[in-house]
Amino acid sequence: MLRAANTAKVHQLSVWDAMIVEAAVAARCQELWSGDLAAGAVIRGVRVVNPLLPG
After folding, report:
1. Residue 46 in contact with residue 38, Cβ under 8 Å?
2. What is the torsion angle, in degrees rounded to the nearest 10, for the CA atoms of residue 15, residue 7, residue 27 and residue 36?
3. Which of the residues 12, 19, 48, 53 could staple to 4 if both were Cys, CB 3.0 to 4.6 A apart?
4. What is the mean pLDDT of each run of 10 residues along the chain (55 residues)?
5. How far, in Å, are 10, 50, 51 from residue 5 at the CA level?
6. Distance, CA of 55 to CA of 10 (rounded, Å)
7. Could you please report the per-residue DSSP string of the chain?
8. Which residues sit opposite 47 in a β-bridge?
9. Helix or strand or coil: residue 52?
């Protein structure tokens, strides 16, 4: 929870979104598919992919 709070502050995310990012980090994911986060962003080493965008 503390890591998520810090990630939320540093990357200007909601705590909920930061918790999802931290779960991806803990699972050693390279990509996180989300329609809510900024596509192409790299947060804590995880690249955000929006599956709803073309291409």
Report:
1. no
2. 50
3. 19
4. 95 96 98 96 97 87
5. 9, 23, 26
6. 29
7. -HHHHHHHHHHT--HHHHHHHHHHHHTT-SEEE-SSSPTT-EETTEEEE-TTS--
8. 31, 42
9. coil
